[in-house]
Amino acid sequence: MKGTKSIKIGGEFEINPISLSGLSKFIPDIKNCLYASGSIALMAILNFIGKRNKKIIYIPFYICKSVFNACEKSGFVTRFYELDTQFLFPFNEIDKIERNATLLFVNYFGFIDASDIISKVKANRPDIITIYDNVQSYWTYKNTPADFSFTSLRKHIATPDGALIDSKDPDFYNYSNLDENNFYWAKLTASLLKYEQINNEVYLNLFEEGENQLYNANNITKASIFGNYFYKNADWNKIKERRKLNYRKVYEIGYNEGIEFLFSYKEGIIPLNVPILINKRDNIRRMLFDMNIFLPVHWPPEDFNKNSKNINALINNELSLIIDQRYTVKQIEFQMKKLLSVLEI
Fold first, then answer.
1. Which of 187, 229, 249, 268 lies at a CB distance of 3.0 to 4.6 Å from 160, suitable for a disulfide?
2. Rounded distance, CA 163 to CA 143, Å?
3. In the predicted model, is pLDDT for residue 273 greater than 60?
């Protein structure tokens, strides 16, 4: 790992070519299907639901474009709800949900446990199909009463593709053989080139090409052999422990410096990122880019959420701090030091 003077924090994962050394002897588990991506996993769920229930889904206004896109591609009528102050579906709105419709919940950044509200919905409205979007929380996607839950491996480890679904309906797993996705090759190549520090423009263009192919995909596809290989060979416990250390360090520094966190620190969770709220977010973000610190936002405004009354502060002020396993605690301290220096400008 390079020193903090030259390291680039954030952005897509890079892949060390040495990590592919065991690929030639790897045999994927054909009994367990890895879907191509989180959005394609959602399409697979909706395809199954649509054969039995109404093609109507309720999703929160605060959502990434790929979720909305997956609902539209699946032929569902998409309706929106405002989150309550706990980032949950407001149960007092339950009577507004049509009979036999589908209701999507989101585990934002890995901080939101919607289990209680999902159980309450299922107890009071058993006609509603529940889906829990755990794309930002690999470690909890199976620990839910929801009818379906899914997560994305690409958010958590260095892999070009891969997503998992948990279903309470055993019939769901009687899927036919799926074709391999067509976007993984661009992403894999980009990740390898990023590791080798090839010209930024080259690998960034490949990442963008892969994202465009994924966004425009209309078919339900599976992960490549590479996705299966990286999933099976990841040291998930080591990844979890490093993320927990980095997560704690961000809050230790941030609390002392008066940073406004979107959520309070919680023991026992492993977030994807740590979201903060800052004024002039886009200007701050650009300044950090110049320091090779690439922090994402979740999510920019879209046409579908422009009528929301509650999420303007989020879409205009949220910035996600990096805590993933690529970085040591010292490098997380470096990230925080640079953030604080820019906030003082």
1. 187
2. 16
3. yes
95 against 28, higher pLDDT: 95
What is the predicted pLDDT for the residue at 79?
98
Give this prediction's pTM: 0.95
| Residue 98 resides in a domain | yes
Band of residue 2 on the pLDDT scale cut at 50, 70, 90 = very low
**CA distances from residue 190 to 21, 119, 207, 250 in whole angstroms, order as listed:** 18, 42, 6, 29
Residues 158 and 185 in one domain: no
How many domains would you assign to the chain? 3
Domain containing residue 218: 179-233
Alpha helices (runs of H) in 11-100, residue ranges in sequence order: 38-50, 65-73
Residues 216 and 246 grouped into a single domain: no
Q: Is residue 321 part of a domain?
A: yes
Are residues 322 and 195 both part of a single domain?
A: no
Task: Tell me how long the chain is.
Answer: 345
Same domain, 213 and 292: no
Are 130 and 105 in contact by the 8 Å Cβ rule? The answer is: yes
User: ∠ at Cα 184 (66, 177), nearest 5°?
Assistant: 85
Sheet strands (E) in 204-288:
274-277
**Contact between residue 34 and residue 225 where contact means Cβ atoms under 8 Å apart:** no
Indicate if 135 and 262 belong to the same structural domain. Answer: no
Task: Transcribe 296-329 into DSSP letters.
Answer: --S----GGGTT-SS-HHHHHHEEEEP--TTS-H
Q: How confident is the model at residue 3 (pLDDT cuts 50, 70, 90)?
A: very low
Q: How far is CA 165 from the centre of its chain?
A: 14
Q: What is the mean pLDDT of the chain?
A: 94
Alpha helices, DSSP H, located in 63-169: 65-73, 115-124
90-127 residue pLDDT tens: 999 999 999 999 999 999 999 999 999 999 999 999 99
What the block records as the tokens of 291 is 């320091």
pLDDT of residue 198: 77
Give the Å distances, CA to CA, from 174 to 146, 167, 170, 171, 231.
Answer: 19, 11, 8, 6, 22
DSSP-assigned beta bridge partners for residue 149: 132, 166
Residues 228 and 282 in one domain: no
